[in-house]
């Protein structure tokens, strides 16, 4: 960061932006581009995090960075599927119980006709077994059982490899380690898994009027609620929040130093606010003066139009607008795909069509994103537009907000019963 005051930097910004950044027909900074283009550009600069080994339980929810194959058949040998009696072929319906196995015991015998061995569910079977007769299906008298019906060979026997065969792929690289997958790995005795590191994210709120949420604001100041919002959303996406800071009244040089310090430790630095065209807006000059390569500035969406991104070495800077609703929407549209890609996941969230259960009067204008609550009922997905999305601090944050509706540019008012395109977000509880 060069030592520069905001006043020194501002003309650079104005010159660049007023001229629409044309130099010999080539754009220096892409301005007000389509969302998908912005996503592609930023994703092109998102590198997958290095991978490292973690104990199985600590790796839950993380993205596995290796293919893991079954080392042997599961079950490794034939097992009883019922508590009961293992019998051999060719009996006449009456069998002598020659042994009664308890959990964990194995039999050394090989069954002959008219012999039975008592077995437990999941227990290994003796040699010569043709079927397992359930406890409740036989008549037990002393050391003998009677079973007069015909025996279907193989019944109530789990053959070796019934669940997995040696060499079967148990986990594919890029899969989220769910409780179910972890349990299969545990059954193979695997207690270390190689997973991608969490992307480290630093959050910096710009604006001389913004103070930490722990401080008492003076008249004209405002607490940094967006920093907390984004920290929570980053954690929901399995990112590691390394710092949440406010720039406050520091001059641009001091803010630049803080910016650089944060960027040293972070993979992604998200700035909040100061992203519009006001003369006090610091995001563009700050990022430009840091030497970062500005990838784009401005997207054709509402809210969140004043979003930008830059790359500096292998690190990314994402500049989000200060209005809380715009900040939340643009985080989900820009930062979430990046956080996913950096962890080795497919970048985009689930998108589906849902029926709107209420109306939304606002029509026309740019492509618009609306916070909503989506639910799946018998008839399919439905979605409710949450109230209070006009003011900057939205009441929708207090509701069960788990989706964003994507309304195309120039859309008519949404009527109850209309089908809309919905992006499903991670639930707010985690
Ligand atoms: N002349 C123009 N003015 C504005 C335009 C425009 O195109 N031309 N766009 C408007 C839109 S749309 C938005 S969104 C905002 C975003 O601009 P900034 O990113 O520069 O946001 P700020 O001015 O810094 O903040 C706006 C508003 O947001 C609240 N805020 C900011 N930071 C925080 C925080 N950390 N925690 C909580 N709340 C925060 C605060 O109410 C600010 O007043 O610009 C419009 N203006
Ligand atoms: O575009 Mo502002 O960033 O709409 O809310």
TrEMBL record:
Pathway the protein takes part in: Cofactor biosynthesis; molybdopterin biosynthesis
InterPro entries membership: MoaB/Mog-like_dom_sf (IPR036425), MoaB/Mog_dom (IPR001453), MoeA-like (IPR038987), MoeA_C_domain_IV (IPR005111), MoeA_C_domain_IV_sf (IPR036688), MoeA_linker/N (IPR005110), MoeA_linker/N_sf (IPR036135)
Name of a matching Pfam family: MoeA_C
Molecular-function GO terms, alphabetical: metal ion binding; molybdopterin molybdotransferase activity
Keywords: Magnesium, Metal-binding, Molybdenum, Molybdenum cofactor biosynthesis, Transferase
EC number: 2.10.1.1
Reaction(s) the record says it catalyses: adenylyl-molybdopterin + molybdate = Mo-molybdopterin + AMP + H(+)
Recorded GO CC terms: cytosol
Keyword Magnesium carried by entry: yes
GO biological process: one example: Mo-molybdopterin cofactor biosynthetic process
Superkingdom, taxonomy of origin: Bacteria
Keyword Magnesium set for record: yes
Cited function: Catalyzes the insertion of molybdate into adenylated molybdopterin with the concomitant release of AMP.
Name of the protein this chain belongs to: Molybdopterin molybdenumtransferase
Lineage: Bacteria, Bacillati, Bacillota, Clostridia, Eubacteriales
